[in-house]
Amino acid sequence: MAALLLVLLSFIPLYDFIDQDIANLAFVGFQTKYGKRYRDEEEGSKRSRIFQDNLKLIEEVNSQDLPYKLGVNEYADLTSEEFSAQKLRPLKVDKKLKGSDAPEDDAVDLPDVVDWRPKGVLNPIKDQGKCGSCWAFSATGALEAQYAIATGKLLSFSEQQLVDCSTDYGNNGCDGGLMEYAYDYIRDNGIDLDSTYPYNAKDNKCQDTLVKKADGLSVGEVNGFYKLDSTDAALMTALVAAPVSIAMYADSNFRFYSSGVYSSYICQIVGDSINHGIVAVGYGTEEGKDYYLMRNSWGPSWGLDGYFKIKRGGADGEHGECNVLEYMRVATLEAN
């Protein structure tokens, strides 16, 4: 019964919940689906109130004529502030970038659609957990794809190694970092496979004995990175060749993205701020709406099986929708 009520939330407006008992049962359904357990009755009551507030937000957004929908997911018992503390960190970009500009390529005839998902170069969606390590997942996600395209071998690199070991390069583990610093670290130290140096979503002391193995990429196989110009043309051209490590500003509604082409009025008032590292894996058009296809690191149950679509050609022409064109980095790979 509880699970059925959770499904019905997609179809029943909040104002139809006349009986509070029904809303409470919906929360029970949420707990059952996502295996939620709370330390005591007081905590459970608090989470129930937050859950119902989030349901109201989701219904209000979905009642508008927007090209996307929000939905209940495993984060529906968290406030926006709690969610941000777990997943997001301001990414402070060094404007005096050490990386080079993108190489000048011959003109590319851009296809109407690019989608790297079925090409066998992307690992199953990963989950950063309660750690602001999105930057590490963005760096490895793009690099894994580049390596697979170059060699035909799909490997899974260690995000935990980057979290633990790249602080001397400017990263701050679970408190944030930048993909360019990750690539600098990998250039000098190589990187292990995830199976050798597994992820635990915590800041730990660097495991030097594991780092010396470098059984994923050896020292020098990544010899730097370059930046892309902040234009749609630059990103689309790069995506024809491979997925790209980028950043965005994830606003308070984005955590509940469910389907469609996301856009946000909030993103239009945050300047050039970015707080979340992701991987661009394609682009296309859906029901007349141009979009970029992005890979997230919040688990496979979030969004479109861990992916999302966001407006291409945003209102802010310089930065893109939610600043997706503000920060784009490509590792230079010398794969054997």
Automatic annotation (TrEMBL):
<keyword id="KW-0865">Zymogen</keyword>
<keyword id="KW-0732">Signal</keyword>
<dbReference type="InterPro" id="IPR038765">
    <property type="entry name" value="Papain-like_cys_pep_sf"/>
</dbReference>
<feature type="domain" description="Peptidase C1A papain C-terminal">
    <location>
        <begin position="110"/>
        <end position="332"/>
    </location>
</feature>
<dbReference type="Pfam" id="PF00112">
    <property type="entry name" value="Peptidase_C1"/>
</dbReference>
<dbReference type="InterPro" id="IPR039417">
    <property type="entry name" value="Peptidase_C1A_papain-like"/>
</dbReference>
<dbReference type="InterPro" id="IPR000169">
    <property type="entry name" value="Pept_cys_AS"/>
</dbReference>
<dbReference type="InterPro" id="IPR013201">
    <property type="entry name" value="Prot_inhib_I29"/>
</dbReference>
<feature type="signal peptide">
    <location>
        <begin position="1"/>
        <end position="17"/>
    </location>
</feature>
<comment type="similarity">
    <text>Belongs to the peptidase C1 family.</text>
</comment>
<dbReference type="GO" id="GO:0008234">
    <property type="term" value="F:cysteine-type peptidase activity"/>
</dbReference>
<protein>
    <recommendedName>
        <fullName>Cysteine protease</fullName>
    </recommendedName>
</protein>
<dbReference type="InterPro" id="IPR013128">
    <property type="entry name" value="Peptidase_C1A"/>
</dbReference>
<dbReference type="GO" id="GO:0006508">
    <property type="term" value="P:proteolysis"/>
</dbReference>
<dbReference type="InterPro" id="IPR025660">
    <property type="entry name" value="Pept_his_AS"/>
</dbReference>
<keyword id="KW-1015">Disulfide bond</keyword>
<feature type="domain" description="Cathepsin propeptide inhibitor">
    <location>
        <begin position="27"/>
        <end position="83"/>
    </location>
</feature>
<dbReference type="Pfam" id="PF08246">
    <property type="entry name" value="Inhibitor_I29"/>
</dbReference>
<dbReference type="InterPro" id="IPR000668">
    <property type="entry name" value="Peptidase_C1A_C"/>
</dbReference>
